[in-house]
Amino acid sequence: MKQLKKKSSAWFMLLTAVVTLVTGCSGGNNASAPAATPAAEATQAPAASETAPAATEAPSATPAANLNGREIRISHWWDATPVGDSEADELARERIKAVEEKYNVKIKYLNTEYWSTAEKLSSSVMASDPFAEIVRLPDGFIWGLMHGGFLTPLDDYLKDSLIDQSVIDSMRFGGDKVYGLESWYSPNDSGVFYNKRIFKEAGLKDPQQLMDEDNWNWNTMLDAAKKLTIDKNGDGKMDQYGLAGAHYVISELLIASNGGKIYDEATQKAVFDSPASMEALNFLHKLYTQDKVFKPNEGNDWEDPAKYFGEGTVAMYPGGLWEIEGRILGKMKDEWGYVYIPKGPQADKYYDPLGQTAAYAIPKGVKDADTIVKIWEDLQPFDSWQENRRLSMENILPDEASIANAMNDEGKVERVFGGRYGGLGVKDQLDKVTEKFLKGEITPSTGVAQVIGTAQAAAKKVLSGEQDKEKK
Questions:
Q1: What is the rounded (10 degree) CA torsion for 28, 51, 413, 34?
Q2: If residue 75 lies in a helix (H) or strand (E), which one and from where to where?
Q3: Cα(378)–Cα(359) distance, integer angstroms
Q4: In this predicted model, what pLDDT tens digit does every residue of 368-392 receive, in sequence order?
Q5: What own/partner pairs with CB < 8 Å and gap ≥ 24 does 268-271 have?
Q6: Which among 9-18, 47-56, 89-98 has the top mean pLDDT?
Q7: Gap between the Cα atoms of 263 and 463, Å rounded
């Protein structure tokens, strides 16, 4: 593939860690990893074809507000300052300079530790001195801060917005007021990484070939995984496995791939006991306990699977695009590719889950909130986000087929909107029993029956604000 000028890692982090789903960060056993998934799903979900921002006519020109040299602080849990010499950073700096001149402000990016962000925001608001004008937050923090009255409702400031209405509506946490800012939805953020060498040595069609034949589904994945789980040296122990992963990641991916959900925002119900979801959980149980095609992790469910893939000891690793730069590039010596999560029996297309999200919020008490919203919009590359995403994918993916899959060029994959569970405690309950039934300690049906009510109660507590009242 022709190499293009590298985009900065800062842009890629913004695109993947901020505009992509990090499905792996959802598990209760993953306390060390931030639950950051970027784009949000709507309670009334937009179709996959609506994920790109619509061409919006610019509002009639009005004089920009003069904020008299004020510093506008934008907080992330990483340093988002564009300091590199890449084209992406150069364009970002140009936008910053234009904004600073237009509004007479100074833009400053804050690097706030992930787990302390919510406390820092709430305490500074209570002190009538918000620590930043714009704060990046995962939905797990937004629910509580919203109920506590620490965030500014943004509906009145988005009437002439450049943001597509479907994206604005997706920021209605709890289905009421808009509390977040997001630019667009990325079309696809999770899939299956596969080792081309392993498939070639076994004489098997690889996942891309099966996808091209419209034959990439649970059955063909399982068939390949069985044939690629082998004892190479005859010592009675498996040296190579068909799959690797963390149970709390795989459960969400399989449920979505069968057209199921873990949580339904429209009804505000935990629904991982639905037929489609249970079929996925039973399949997962079979993969682990009967087929035994998953390489056992060695104490670190979060890090081990990607490490195994990089070492070339597993054929397939379901995960997120955000993982490539830090976990695969430079560590994977074999040729590899990227495809969608295979179709489940109840699915007529490929699905990509979006169970968590993140958004930019404005703390309560920030002055000139209407102008702050406009400043944030002016900093977004609305006119070039798809081009920038493609260039970023070309930097990290190994071939044109993988890039086309990541970009969803043929529209084969659909995001599963309307199932956001981040911060509601729903997935935590499912993960507890998933871990048990994968060890053979309990059946999926028994485990789910034990926790579905608890999961529903946890969500209700957060959505009603009861949890926040107890903290006060």
A1: -20
A2: strand 70-76
A3: 16
A4: 999 999 999 999 988 777 887 888 8
A5: 268/459, 268/460, 268/463, 269/456, 269/459, 270/426, 270/429, 270/452, 270/455, 270/456, 270/459
A6: 89-98
A7: 13
Position 263, amino acid: Y
| Per-residue tokens: 40 | 């949000």
Q: How high is the pLDDT of residue 466?
A: 57
Distance of alpha carbon 319 from alpha carbon 353, whole angstroms: 12
The more confidently predicted of residues 359 and 174 is 359
Cβ-proximal residues to 470 (8 Å cutoff; 6+ apart), any chain: none
Distances (CA, A) of 387 to 5, 27, 281, 393, 427: 13, 33, 38, 10, 34
- Residues 174, 144: Cα–Cα separation, whole Å: 11
Altogether, the residues listed in the chain come to a count of: 472
What are the CA-CA distances from residue 397 to residues 77, 304, 394, 405 (Å)?
25, 21, 6, 10
Q: Is the pLDDT of residue 33 over 60?
A: no
Q: Report the chain's C-alpha Rg in angstroms.
A: 22
Give residue 12's pLDDT.
35
Least confident window among 99-103, 162-166, 252-256: 162-166
Say which residues have a Cβ less than 8 Å from residue 454's Cβ, sequence separation at least 6: 429
How open is the CA angle 284-242-188, to the nearest 5 degrees? 70
Question: Can you tell me the distance from the alpha carbon of 8 to that of 83, in angstroms, rounded to the nearest whole number?
Answer: 9
Provide the token pair at 443: 């059946």
